[in-house]
């Protein structure tokens, strides 16, 4: 008791005191149940990628594989051509991220650091992009892409992806750029830096924390995108399109399917393990606009 | 002279502002804004993809009329399906997300761990999730059937066509959609719950309020703006849903699980009807904005 009076009780202490132990156990059971609902399908996918059909079809549906067969990974690599799919997806993602970052930093600089009439109006105009669904552009873009002769190339995906990530890029950069003191711009101006010099030498280097957030957001948008990817390309496949086209509804080679799915999922989950907080933050940035 | 220099500076500044904005504006107008107007123009024509717009194929609002009256397009059914999905999202998925957010947000041991796992499905491509659930729903070897056999809920050996039976296919296709995004809404709401001032909670607690009362009278009212965003996302997301339906059923069996986008792609790619495809796109844009406005209004009224 004496100890408690020395250190003020935190909010957590109240909860721990107040929450009935039975209720607490029930809460944990519920949380654990939901954990299982989330993890078990993924665990199952992981294990059946190593199992023989005999095991999958009845002998060992949910357990660990008796023998870890890596052969399905080899088959998936060769037949689905996972390396090519990965290469395409990475190429599209990297270039899209680069374009989104450069274009949104430039626009944000003009919208927040340079003073001119109508800049709030232009800003709200860009923010319209947060609510426009991809569907709005699907048909006209298809036509434009065909006419421009970039159908079935990476540019047929990069240009739309960059355009649709732009609004979020500007929204995120505005937040980060607002934290850089205006004194820096003025000092640079006195030192004879023009607007371009200030932008490139002063502002851009200070925006590195924003780059991660924009990069993650854009990456997840284009890495998993399917509607445009399946419409604007045929031979140039990204991972979702390749996986979808290769496995019809009634594929019997479960091991190969499992191996391909695990390979397709693995990079995202690996990044998530290391950057979970940053990834969660970049998703929250998308909703706070209100 | 001095005025001249200032004038020049102003012009130069204007040019610079324009140059900074140019790439963004070009990309944004060219890829997002102009296509919306073009979609609307296409929707007034009976045209295939590479047809030019001419007087001959101008048909006014016929596409819109056909969309709702033609028995072969199945649009009303698709719209109904997506609205059903919206209702399920709002009344099942969001309450579940809110419940999880409230539980985790009140400070449990291991809350970060739970949160991170619950959010994981959001990051996985919907195509991958669809392929995985195809296997879970396999009538013979799937996880679901086998689990029901093991628990003696289903007599061993009885097969259920989860995605192939017209009566249950829609419900089956909705489950993975709900499953994937619970974590997303939970994350948004959790951030809101964590943002509630601890002083406010403490004061209520000292007054003897129970957890339930605190949630009801303090936490939920203060995260209302986030709940509103979640509701808008859930409804517009349901209207736009495509990927999982495409993988799981592709609108079948016998059009039981069509959603507007599966029909749009069908008209556009398989039938080469760009006019009709655009009509569906315009309907979707209008519906998304309409529902966003209505939801905003409803939340405003409640205040």
Question: Can you summarize this structure?
Answer:
The complex is a heterodimer of chains A (290) and B (303). By secondary structure, chain A is an all-alpha fold.
Written overview of the protein:
The complex is a heterodimer of chains A (290) and B (303). Chain A has 290 residues and is an all-alpha fold. In chain A, 75% of the residues lie in helices and 0% in strands. Chain A has 15 helices and no strands. Chain A has helices at residues 2-6, 11-18, 21-48, 53-59, 71-79, 82-112, 119-127, 135-148, 155-177, 182-190, 195-206, 208-223, 227-232, 239-246, 254-285. Chain B has helices spanning 2-42, 62-69, 75-105, 111-123, 126-136, 143-150, 169-195, 198-206, 211-222, 224-240, 243-248, 260-270, 274-302. Chain B starts with a helix and ends with a helix. The mean pLDDT of chain B is 89.
* Major sheet summary line of chain B: none
Q: What separation lies between the terminal Cα atoms of chain B?
A: 60 Å
Number of helices of chain B: 13
What's the overall geometry of chain B? flat
CATH class of chain B: Mainly Alpha
What is the CATH topology of the largest domain in chain A? Answer: MetI-like fold
In percent, how much strand structure appears in the residues of chain B? under 5%
In CATH, the homologous superfamily of the largest domain in chain A goes by the name: MetI-like
Oligomeric grouping of the chains: heterodimer
Low-pLDDT ranges of chain B: none
Class of secondary structure makeup of chain B: mainly alpha
Keywords:
heterodimer, A: 290 residues, mainly alpha, MetI-like fold, 2 domains, 15 helices, 75% helix, 0% strand, B: 303 residues, 13 helices
SSE layout and pairings?
The complex is a heterodimer of chains A (290) and B (303).
Chain A: H1 2-6, H2 11-18, H3 21-48, H4 53-59, H5 71-79, H6 82-112, H7 119-127, H8 135-148, H9 155-177, H10 182-190, H11 195-206, H12 208-223, H13 227-232, H14 239-246, H15 254-285
Chain B: H1 2-42, H2 62-69, H3 75-105, H4 111-123, H5 126-136, H6 143-150, H7 169-195, H8 198-206, H9 211-222, H10 224-240, H11 243-248, H12 260-270, H13 274-302
């Amino acid at each position: 008791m004496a100890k408690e009076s020395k250190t003020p009780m935190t909010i957590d202490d109240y909860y721990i005191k107040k929450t009935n132990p039975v209720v607490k156990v029930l809460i944990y059971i519920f949380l654990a149940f939901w954990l299982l609902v989330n993890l078990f399908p993924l665990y199952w996918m992981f294990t059946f990628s190593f199992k023989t059909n005999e095991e999958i079809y009845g002998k060992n549906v949910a357990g660990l594989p008796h023998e870890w067969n890596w052969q399905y990974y080899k088959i998936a690599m060769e037949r689905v051509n996972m390396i090519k799919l990965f290469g395409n997806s990475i190429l599209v993602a990297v270039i899209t991220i680069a374009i989104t970052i450069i274009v949104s930093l430039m626009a944000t600089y003009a919208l927040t650091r340079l003073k001119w009439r109508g800049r709030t109006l232009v800003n709200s105009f860009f923010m319209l992009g947060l609510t426009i669904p991809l569907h709005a552009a699907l048909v006209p873009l298809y036509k434009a892409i065909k006419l421009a002769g970039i159908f079935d190339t990476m540019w047929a995906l990069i240009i739309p992806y960059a355009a649709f990530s732009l609004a979020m890029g500007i929204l995120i950069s505005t937040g980060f750029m607002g934290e850089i003191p205006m004194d820096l711009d003025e000092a640079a101006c006195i030192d004879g830096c023009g607007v371009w010099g200030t932008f490139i030498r002063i502002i851009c280097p200070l925006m590195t924390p924003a780059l991660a957030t924009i990069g993650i957001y854009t990456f997840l948008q284009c890495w998993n995108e399917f509607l445009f990817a399946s419409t604007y390309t045929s031979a140039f496949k990204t991972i979702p399109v390749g996986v979808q086209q290769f496995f019809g509804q009634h594929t019997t080679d479960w091991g190969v399917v499992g191996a391909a799915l695990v390979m397709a999922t693995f990079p995202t989950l690996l990044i998530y393990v290391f950057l979970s907080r940053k990834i969660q933050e970049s998703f929250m940035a998308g909703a706070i606009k209100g | 002279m001095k005025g001249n220099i200032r004038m020049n500076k102003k012009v130069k500044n204007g040019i610079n502002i324009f140059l900074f904005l140019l790439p963004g504006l070009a990309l944004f107008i060219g890829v997002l804004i102009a296509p919306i107007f073009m979609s609307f123009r296409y929707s007034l024509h009976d045209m295939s993809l590479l047809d030019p717009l001419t007087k001959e194929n101008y048909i006014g609002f016929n596409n819109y009329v056909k969309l709702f009256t033609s028995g072969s397009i199945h649009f009303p059914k698709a719209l109904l399906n997506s609205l059903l999905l919206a209702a399920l999202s709002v009344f099942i998925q969001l309450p579940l997300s809110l419940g999880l957010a409230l539980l985790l947000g009140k400070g449990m041991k291991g809350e970060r761990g739970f949160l991170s796992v619950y959010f994981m499905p959001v990051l996985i491509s919907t195509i991958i999730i669809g392929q995985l659930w195809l296997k879970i729903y396999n009538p013979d070897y799937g996880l679901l059937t086998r689990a029901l056999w093991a628990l003696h809920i289903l007599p061993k050996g009885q097969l259920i066509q989860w995605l192939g039976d017209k009566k249950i296919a829609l419900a089956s296709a909705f489950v993975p959609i709900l499953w994937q995004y619970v974590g997303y809404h939970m994350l948004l709401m959790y951030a809101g719950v964590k943002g509630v001032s601890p002083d406010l909670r403490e004061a209520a607690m000292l007054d003897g309020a129970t957890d339930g009362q605190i949630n009801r009278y303090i936490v939920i009212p203060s995260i209302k703006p986030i709940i509103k965003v979640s509701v808008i996302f859930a409804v517009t997301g349901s209207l736009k849903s495509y990927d999982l339906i495409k993988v799981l059923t592709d609108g079948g069996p016998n059009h039981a699980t069509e959603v507007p986008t599966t029909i749009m792609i069908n008209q556009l790619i398989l039938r080469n009807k760009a006019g009709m495809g655009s009509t569906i796109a315009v309907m979707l844009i209008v519906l998304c904005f309409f529902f966003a406005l209505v939801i905003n209004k409803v939340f405003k009224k409640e205040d």
